[in-house]
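Input:
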Amino acid sequence: MQYLLMVYANEREMAALGEAALSAMSQEYAEFTKSIVQAGNFKAGDRLRPVSTASTVRLRNGKVVITDGPFAETREQLGGYYLVEAKNLDEALALAARIPGARHGSIEVRPIWVLGQQ
Amino acid sequence: MNPPEAPLQAAVDARIAEVFSREAGRVLATLIRLLGDFDLAEEARQEAFAAALERWPLRGVPDNPSAWLIHVGRNKGIDRIRRHAVYRDVILREAASIGCEAVQGDEPDGAEVFGDDRLRLIFTCCHPALSPEARIALTLREVCGLTLQAVARAFLVHEDAMAQRLVRAKRKIRDAGIPYQTPDPSMFDERIDGVLSVIYAVFTEGYAATAGGELTDEGLCREAIRLGRLLDALLPGNAAVLGLVALMLLHDARRPARVSGSGNVVLLDEQDRTLWDRSQIAEGLELVERSLRSPAHVSRFAVEAAIAALHVQAADKSLTDWPQIVGLYEVLLRLHPTPVVELNHAAAVSMVDGPERALALVESIRARGEVSDYHLLHATRGKLLARLGRRSEALEAYRAALDGAKLDPERRFLGERIAELTEDGGGPNPAIRSDEVSAKLGGTRP
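Output:
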């Protein structure tokens, strides 16, 4: 099965971490990503720019409405994701627990709904 | 073949009924593994039982009835998959695994294969990715085999709502890919703790129902103890499992003395100790000892069981070993730091160091505000204040407790305390004796 692991963190707290801590964390992310590529779990994964760069689009009465900012204001913001292949939820949860961001933020694990499946 | 004579017929019917009730759980657990779907497995089991009712009276009960039921159930299930388009994607996904595992299912190795499947079922129903309510409901329905009506009644939930809860939980198991397996060794201890918490929640719901006119629900207590024993049979020697079974037996042994003839709460120190179930206590004590024998794996349930053991071992309430109980609560606070454990610790401290020190502990729990609406916090506070002669504050605390109490017997008990304090001229009230208030009022709830 495929799962989307969404990495949520508080952007303000992350920004306050300081140069050294941030570079240590990028290093950890690089190692984690490398390890799940080698293990065959990795399908895709990227970091996202902060919500200050987000735009939200809606179509209302046939008209495109564009607003500045994210879909919802939350305490923690989506900051990145991994798309992984795992044999079941337990394996996906174990991968999620190894994401460096799990230590201060939260990882939401969602199964991919394959097109055409019940 | 001629139909059997009437007496023989009755004997066969009785045997069939006995086989069904004994094998229902194992057959379901194995069919879920073979068919890969809870609902399909339940339907297949129904069909297998129906087939047995037709055939066994004529040909006799087979030597290995559960293997027969599983074999027939699996075939019925596969027929169903072929018939129903709904299951078509299940076929596509599971075809390979049904094919290879079915071979295993044709010749079950007896207890071991079934045991593994029942363990798989328990771990799946208690998976942490399900909500706590869903875990309890699924366990009672799928592992214990309780009817939907019984599960709904146990938790005072409407049947439709309970049915919905079960449907949603099973859908999550399927759609999120919750595995039907015992967890990897790396997560085993964590997951077993989760399973034990579910069983203990069933027990405490029975021991001190959270709402309604009755204080206890015997059926739920028995179910929880039976689940604990099943888990002990499947995981022999597991210290945490032993501790939980001991804890439940020791609490349950006191159940006959906890409620008076008029349905009122009877406090631990006022209970008629001759009503306690001695054989259950003896078994509980033996299990506590076995559980504590491996000090590397002390579980919170074993420590709680040891506390319960000290209570029941005292021939008289005045002989209770309070200093050791305080010590055990301090161990428990390290293993399982919750406000309820802190509250029970404070109540025990009051028996060793007096109400003043205990009240300071209770006030610090209250100041944190996490459990400020918990009625046992106020009841404990009221009792300590009454012992210190602070009558008006005690009254206020008991009234706050009454506001939060939902059970009728508890409400009557608190009403009596308030009446005593109102009539009384003040000063320490002899009718309010010190003891472990929260344990007496509500059991040691997790």
